[in-house]
UniProtKB/TrEMBL annotation:
Keywords tagged on the record: Nucleotidyltransferase, Sigma factor, Transcription, Transcription regulation, Transferase
GO biological process, one term: DNA-templated transcription initiation
Protein name: RNA polymerase factor sigma-70
Enzyme Commission number, as recorded: 2.7.7.6
GO molecular function, one term: sigma factor activity
Entry-linked SUPFAM superfamilies: NTF2-like (SSF54427), Sigma2 domain of RNA polymerase sigma factors (SSF88946), Sigma3 and sigma4 domains of RNA polymerase sigma factors (SSF88659)
InterPro entries the record matches: ECF_Sigma-70_Domain (IPR052704), NTF2-like_dom_sf (IPR032710), RNA_pol_sigma-70_dom (IPR014284), RNA_pol_sigma-G_actinobac (IPR014305), RNA_pol_sigma70_r2 (IPR007627), RNA_pol_sigma70_r4_t2 (IPR013249), RNA_pol_sigma_r2 (IPR013325), RNA_pol_sigma_r3/r4-like (IPR013324)
SnoaL-like domain span: 207-273
Biased composition (Pro residues): 86-96
Organism: Amycolatopsis decaplanina DSM 44594
Broad class of enzyme this protein falls into: transferase
Subunit structure: Interacts transiently with the RNA polymerase catalytic core formed by RpoA, RpoB, RpoC and RpoZ (2 alpha, 1 beta, 1 beta' and 1 omega subunit) to form the RNA polymerase holoenzyme that can initiate transcription.
Keyword tRNA-binding assigned: no
Source organism, top-level taxon: Bacteria
């Protein structure tokens, strides 16, 4: 067996150790499960091609995160990758409250989080493991300038020292402090702290929602929402904010004759979720954001299974 083949086998074994962490890292920055997969593949290919230049001045994890971060920043400059085509609804939807721009957002299945090694945050983590994957956090990251989002994830979630973050992003430690200050201030505006660990109360609330939603019980669904609840449907840009707007949209969709609508409980982004089906056909993934004993947001990912 050649030395190159042996090196490749060793590299693959080491890379596999970090593959899931890299995927979660890329997902946080990109907000897209699919784009994160592409970024990881590009990262590992670039790392293999540049293996001869890896001098061991940093750990393999740091080196791979540096490559992955820069692949993500490159992907964000390519707007075509981040904007999936807008779906055409089979009905005439009511006028939305607004047309959101974050149509690339995708959910992250909870079962994949279990594959990330050492998922507990370090002592310098500003954001807990659970919070750092919730939809509100991922959404907030997408609203930041890309370098701010990357710096915040590297420093406040993955706990890399400030000097290493500066090196990864090709800037100075002083500049990183300023970038982080602006990123933290912006992100704090979008954090809601609403999600929490699964509990009997959560299971009862989500069961009642599932029963009302599958029965097309509009009043039953609305009774479970907060007054400022909102509904979004990536990759469609339509968003409906407030009970009246949500009621107007659901009233139209619930009146459309379809095959039997069913939901199966699951979890995504550390939040309760449902896999939806019309008869035998997948009808997307619905993720709920809770606020105490009510539901603050419904995010229906139309193309997820």
């Amino acid at each position: 067996m050649s030395t190159r083949t042996t090196d490749e086998q060793v590299f693959r074994e080491l890379a596999d150790t970090y593959r899931h962490e890299l995927h979660l890292h890329c997902y946080r920055i990109l907000g897209s499960f699919t784009d994160a997969e592409d970024a990881v593949q590009e990262t590992l290919l670039a790392a293999w091609r540049g293996l001869d230049g890896f001098e061991g001045c940093s750990s393999l994890r740091t080196w791979l995160c540096r490559i992955a971060t820069n692949r993500c920043l490159n992907a964000q400059r390519d707007a075509g990758r981040r904007r999936p085509p807008e779906p055409v609804p089979p009905f005439d939807p009511p006028e939305p409250s607004l047309r959101g721009e974050m149509t690339w957002l995708q959910p992250y299945p909870d079962e994949l989080l279990e594959r990330v090694a050492d998922s507990e945050p370090g002592p310098e983590a500003r954001y807990g493991t659970r919070e750092a994957i919730e939809l509100a956090f991922i959404t907030g990251l997408q609203l930041l300038p890309p370098r701010q989002a990357a710096a915040l994830v590297l420093r406040d979630v993955l706990c890399f020292p400030a000097d290493e973050v500066a090196s990864m992003l090709g800037t100075t430690e002083t500049a990183i402090k300023g970038i982080l200050q602006r990123a933290r201030a912006s992100l704090d505006k979008h954090r809601d702290g609403a999600a929490h660990r699964p509990s009997p109360q959560e299971r009862e609330l989500t069961r009642r929602f599932a029963d009302a939603f599958t029965a097309a019980d509009l009043d039953g669904v609305l009774s479970l929402l907060t007054d400022d609840a909102w509904l979004a449907m990536p990759p469609a840009p339509h968003e409906y904010h407030g009970l009246a707007a949500i009621a107007g949209f659901l009233r139209v969709t619930m009146a459309i004759p379809v095959e039997r609508f069913t939901v199966t409980p699951t979890r995504a982004n550390n939040q309760p979720a449902f896999r939806c089906r019309h008869g035998e056909t997948s009808a997307g993934l619905m993720v709920l954001t809770l606020d105490g004993d009510r539901i603050r947001a419904i995010t229906r990912f139309l193309h997820q299974k």
